[in-house]
Automatic annotation (TrEMBL), chain A:
Gene Ontology BP terms: protein targeting to ER; signal peptide processing
Organism phylogeny: Eukaryota, Viridiplantae, Streptophyta, Embryophyta, Tracheophyta
Gene Ontology CC entries for this record: signal peptidase complex
Alphabetically ordered keywords of this record: Endoplasmic reticulum, Membrane, Transmembrane, Transmembrane helix
Annotated function: Component of the signal peptidase complex (SPC) which catalyzes the cleavage of N-terminal signal sequences from nascent proteins as they are translocated into the lumen of the endoplasmic reticulum. Dispensable for SPC enzymatic activity.
Region described as Disordered: spans on this chain: 69-94
The protein, known as: Signal peptidase complex subunit 1
One Pfam family per UniProt: SPC12
UniProtKB/TrEMBL annotation, chain B:
Underlying gene: LOC105162437
UniProt superkingdom: Eukaryota
Described purpose of this protein according to its UniProt entry: Essential component of the signal peptidase complex (SPC) which catalyzes the cleavage of N-terminal signal sequences from nascent proteins as they are translocated into the lumen of the endoplasmic reticulum. Essential for the SPC catalytic activity, possibly by stabilizing and positioning the active center of the complex close to the lumenal surface.
Name of this chain's protein: Signal peptidase complex subunit 3
Organism lineage string: Eukaryota, Viridiplantae, Streptophyta, Embryophyta, Tracheophyta
Keyword flag Signal: yes
Main location: endoplasmic reticulum
The organism of origin for this protein: Sesamum indicum
Annotated family: Belongs to the SPCS3 family.
Signal peptide, first to last residue: 1-26
């Protein structure tokens, strides 16, 4: 997933679970059936898990553009100078 | 939400927390129920009334217990436990409660009932105080929920009296 996808997955998960919980509670209360409430919520949990947990393609619509490996080799990583920082640290003010 | 495991964990935790919340709300909804139970008990017969060898009085009764406890049931009720207690005062104890009968009501349909029975549990005094004793018969109940808080209440029925002499 990309960053936008992760945010979408999290928001979708929270929204869907809360929505199913509200629907489940209202349905159970109105129908007078505790079992109905639990069944609707369980169905909502399963559905939400199928949509938000796996790495679906629609979560990767803003892919990060990683640098191509062949391009990276042309620009070697800068090496730290071996003597500079140590000398600076050991200088004392007289 | 970097990986499958991360998302699965966040999802499960949130789902279970929300489940706890809707169960709490279901329990809270029981407070909106204002029940109106009724009950009546007749003592049909005093079968026998003896003083036991150890000195304590014992009486056997035949009772007709009728009640309508249907208004106690809500969507969040698992069952109602009901029991009938004889309550009276003695010089030694300001309140004696002896359970004579109990039952479990599993659903609203069974909550309007009458039962013609001898006392299920023995009515034995701590001592020899029952001759001519005035006593109340109190129907107690516990509304046991599917989730959350249990409610208990009672109806006191007074005006019962035991015989003056053993028989």
């Amino acid at each position: 997933m990309d960053w936008q996808g992760q945010k979408l997955a999290e928001q979708l998960m929270q929204l869907m679970l809360v929505a199913f919980a509200v629907v489940a509670f209202i349905a159970g209360y109105v129908l007078g059936s505790f079992q109905t409430m639990l069944l609707i919520y369980a169905a909502g949990v399963v559905l939400t898990s199928l949509i938000t947990i796996p790495n679906w393609p629609f979560f990767n619509r803003h892919p990060l553009s990683w640098l191509d490996p062949s391009e990276a080799e042309k620009h070697p990583k800068p090496q730290p100078a071996s003597s500079g920082p140590k000398k600076k640290a050991s200088k004392k003010v007289n | 939400m970097h990986s499958f495991g991360y998302r699965a964990n966040a999802f499960l935790t949130f789902a279970i927390t929300i489940l706890a919340l809707i169960c709490a709300m279901a329990s809270l909804s029981d407070n909106f129920n204002s029940p109106s139970p009724t009950s009546q008990v007749q003592v049909l017969n005093i079968n026998w009334f003896q003083k036991k060898p150890d000195g304590d009085d014992e009486v056997s009764l035949t009772l007709n217990i009728s009640a309508n406890l249907q208004s106690l049931f809500t969507w969040n009720t698992k069952q109602v436990f009901v029991f009938l207690a004889a309550e009276y005062e003695t010089p030694k104890n300001s309140l004696n409660q002896v359970s004579l009968w109990d039952g479990i009501i599993p659903s609203k349909e069974h909550a309007q009932f009458w039962i013609h029975t001898t006392n299920k549990y023995r009515f034995i005094d701590q001592g020899s105080n029952l001759r001519g004793k005035n006593f109340n018969l109190t129907l107690h109940w516990h509304v046991m929920p599917k989730t959350g808080k249990m409610f208990a209440d009672k109806i006191v029925m007074s005006g019962y009296r035991l015989p003056e002499a053993y028989r």
